[in-house]
Amino acid sequence: MLTKGPVSPGLHGLFDYVLGIVLVAGPFVLGFDDDTATTVSVVAGVAELVVASTTAWSRGIVKVIPPAVHGMIDYVFVVLLIVAPFVLGFSDDDTAKVFFLVLGVGGLLLVAATRFVPDEGTPKRAAA
Q1: Three-state DSSP class for 51?
Q2: Most buried of the four, 54, 61, 116, 120, by CB within 10 Å?
Q3: What is the Cα–Cα distance from 91 to 89, expressed in whole angstroms?
Q4: What would the mean pLDDT of 43-60 be, rounded to a whole number?
């Protein structure tokens, strides 16, 4: 399931950094009305950047998290983005709600299409 798909690890890794930056900047650019939505988005963005930078493939900096584990983290992460407005009580802020839903559903599609396998930047010991 995690090893097939048209999206390469390198491209996915690039999208990880973009998603992290969008999550951090989005609340300020879009002017969220709800402080909880802003906080959750910034924290999620920082978490996304940490996972992206510590994954053991070409876009990772520290290369600690195996690609398959990254894939499982991503599935949980995007589902949490989708449910956050409803579970955390900011579904009445339409801008924040749509932001989280679009990023969550888009992220889910990206994760489902990614090959979570070692790529050219993965050390041999991290690939196992």
Answers
A1: helix
A2: 116
A3: 6
A4: 94
Contact assessment for residue 40 and residue 88, using Cβ atoms and an 8 Å cutoff? yes
* Residues linked to residue 55 through DSSP beta bridges, in sequence order: 65
Cα–Cα distance list, 37 to 8, 26, 27, 83 (Å): 31, 10, 8, 12
Q: Specify the amino acid at residue 20.
A: G
pLDDT score recorded for residue 113: 93
- The structure tokens listed for 74 are 């991503």
Mean pLDDT throughout 25-45? 97
Tokens representing residue 112 in the block: 């489902």
Query: How wide is the angle at C-alpha 69 spanned by C-alphas 37 and 56, nearest 5°?
Result: 100
Is the Cβ–Cβ distance between 119 and 8 less than 8 Å? Answer: yes
Q: Which of 88, 98, 93 is nearest to 32 (CA)?
A: 93
Structure tokens at 37: 């939505």
pTM beyond cutoff 0.90: no
What share of the chain in percent tops pLDDT 90?
A: 76
By C-alpha distance, which of 8, 104, 13, 25 is closest to 59?
13
